[in-house]
Amino acid sequence: MTPTRIKLDRGRGALGPALELVHTGRAPTRAVLTTELGVTRATAGAVATELQALGLITVDPRPHAASGAQGRPSHRLDIAADGPVVLAAQVHADGYRVALVGLGGRIVATAPACMTVDADPARIIGDAVAAGAELLRTTGRRCLGAGLAVPSAVAEPEGTALNPLHVAWPAGAPVHDIFRDCLTEAGVGVPGRCGNDVNLAALAEHRHGAGQGSHHLLCVATGHRGVGGALVLDGRLHTGSAGLALEVGHLIVDPAGRACHCGARGCLDVETDPLALLETAGVTPDPARSPLDQARALLAGDHPEAAAVTEAVAQLVDRLGQGLAAMVNVLNPDRIILGGLHQSLLAAAPDRLRSVVADRSLWGRSGSVPILPCSLGHNSLVGAAELAWQPVLDDPATALSAP
């Protein structure tokens, strides 16, 4: 084997890691790419050139140096603005969203959101895929994959939604097979992958948002109803042996609390979600409006009884802090990010929440764990796209050579 051939093999083996570095913003220049990959400048240049030839990134032909920087200027790397996309869809308790998402987590196009969820998962997933197919036809973009986020634990490898408690789907709905069939019927000839919405939100935040740089990232979030959790370890989701890890919504924080859908009482799922805040503040939910929107309006001052809201916030923050402390004791994360209503509760009472977590920590050290709000808009949707992008990040050349 000639030395040239050895270099070529090494370069091709670096395509995936290199693309992920650019995708996550960790290699803005060819010089940084060289350092991060641990290869020569020539190899990094060849890798960047090949990724550009595949239509995935652009390499600025004019080297630039940062202001005040020393040494040789470097070529800037960026995502190709007109490059391929993936189709991303998210089903939640109050409808669905659909988007085309490029590398870097960039949302390229969106379809109008649907605000109702059919009891037949095939119907709403089919509608979401049809909306995505129309986006592809309208934009003319090449699609490399599709991802779907659902409000349920998704068993692996069969792809069934085991506990879609907040949508009227049957337990065990075969969402992966439904998604695949809908893509075929809509003429979108790409593989589809499904996952839990909070898992995918955590993955998106780790790669593009508030979780960047964390090695043991815990995400806890409540959207329209219920509570979910996720753990990202060294860049990969920890889903357990069958995809069912981190069902933190059923961590009991008040044994005498509200009855939960799971049969227990006082779970995070029913003690710290938007409906719990409304009920604790003495507000009757409006069935015509999103519970999350109503809860956020309450926190913004849309209630005549400010004292009742303050007391409700304190109670939910204490329950949430108790649950987070238990997770810290078990998982020992280096960062916690909160999504949905939980990030609003963090903003409303940051010191109280951090104090509860620290006080309930077994070792008294959880107060040193940063607790931050999620920073991405529509992070579950971006996470669904990450699921679809993963095969490309693993092997760009093979993924781009597929018909």
UniProtKB/TrEMBL annotation:
It comes from the Bacteria. InterPro entries: ATPase_NBD (IPR043129), ROK (IPR000600), WH-like_DNA-bd_sf (IPR036388). Belongs to the ROK (NagC/XylR) family. This is ROK family protein. It comes from Streptomyces lonarensis.
